Amino acid sequence: MIATMRKDKDVTIYDIARNLSISPATVSRGLKDHPAISSKTKKRITDKARELGYRSNNFASNLRQQKSYTIGVLLHELHSNFIVSVLAGIEKVTAEANYDIIIAHSSESGTKEVENAENLFHKRVDGLIASLAFDTPDLSHFDPFISKGIPVVFFDRVEENSVGTKVIIDNYKAGYDATRHLIEQGCKRVVHITGNLKRNVYAQRCNGYKAALRDYDVPFSDDLLYVISLEQDSSVATARAIAVMDPMPDGIFAASDFTGALCIQTFKEMGLRIPEDIAVVGFNNDVVSTIVEPRLTTINYPGVEIGEVAARSLVHHLAGNGDITLTNSIIIKSELIVRASSLRRPV
Question: Where are the alpha helices (H) located in the chain, listed in sequence order?
Fold first, then answer.
């Protein structure tokens, strides 16, 4: 006869053992797929556990092991295709290693990032993967993790001179390649639209842009550098301002595909031809780059690979199969993808 369970009480291994007339130890081993328990007995145990609504108490087990089997993921935003692809890479690796992830995002606020870091620390995550907000003041909010020996891996937006593992692309080279391409297509007044230059990704892309102009004897002017939020309103307003400049620029290197696509849309609405009047290059290889017309030349930023490398480095460290304290920066390959938005000359 099956014992009746109270609805407000969790089912335990003792309840399963009593129903099957076997020992709680046998039930415990069966639920853990122990080789000493026969397949027939394991099936009886798992079937009964399912019937009674048993839920394993991972929290108590993890507490005994002093591990939570969770990894914190601290992001600066959630709505970009790049971040979604990074998360896909992280989740693939962590799931294979039987880790859960807890996601927190700062909405580009350094203050919120500090709060989220503290929250993840108190949730006892085993490790942390983080990308910094626009205005992160310093890295002191990660000190509690370091002092407790909790490994931290940074990706994309990082402090390049800080300790710890960083998974990035060569943003300097990417900015250089994007600008050189526009110059080789005949552009002589190239605008760069970028984000907060306190962040490494934008600062290094800007440095690459300036270096390409210098190497090809193309003049740089502060009037051709726009530092904006890269959101829709600021991107459209910037495109409109560029379109009425005198003389008008003939090339745009935008630090995001979203901004690059909005520039194309705005220029076309104002009667400009792309790329004949003004050529446009974006950054990230987001889906929007293949939807906008003409399709957007861009830098491929392999988000899935970055997520996988960051998560794998962390998981291997936690398993004792690697030591991320011995690694500084891991550089992931990026490349220029040439499309119609910048092609003014045959290739």
Answer: 13-20, 24-31, 39-52, 58-65, 81-96, 110-122, 143-147, 171-184, 200-215, 232-243, 257-269, 288-291, 303-318
Position 80 pLDDT exceeds 90: no
Task: Count the neighbouring beta carbons within 10 Å of the beta carbon of residue 343.
Answer: 16
Q: In residues, how long is the chain?
A: 347
Instruction: Return phi, psi of residue 3, to 5°.
Output: -70, 140
- One-letter amino acid identity for 193? I
Q: Give residue 29's pLDDT.
A: 86
Q: Is the pLDDT of residue 326 over 80?
A: no
Those residues whose C-beta lies under 8 Å from the C-beta of residue 205, and which sit 6 or more positions away, are 171, 172, 174, 175, 178, 192, 194, 255, 283
- Is 89 in contact with 305 (CB distance < 8 Å)? yes
Q: pTM of the full predicted structure? A: 0.78
For 157, the token pair is: 């937006």
Which residues, including other chains, have CB under 8 Å from residue 169's CB and lie 6 or more apart?
Answer: 301, 302, 306, 331, 332, 333, 334
Segment 251-280, tens digit of pLDDT = 999 999 999 999 999 999 999 999 999 999
Mean pLDDT of 230-238: 96
The backbone region for 42, taken as left when phi is positive above 0, alpha when psi lies in -120 to 50, beta otherwise, is alpha
Structure tokens at 18: 């009593």
* 56 band by pLDDT with thresholds 50, 70 and 90: low
Concatenated DSSP letters of 258-271: HHHHHHHHHHHHTT
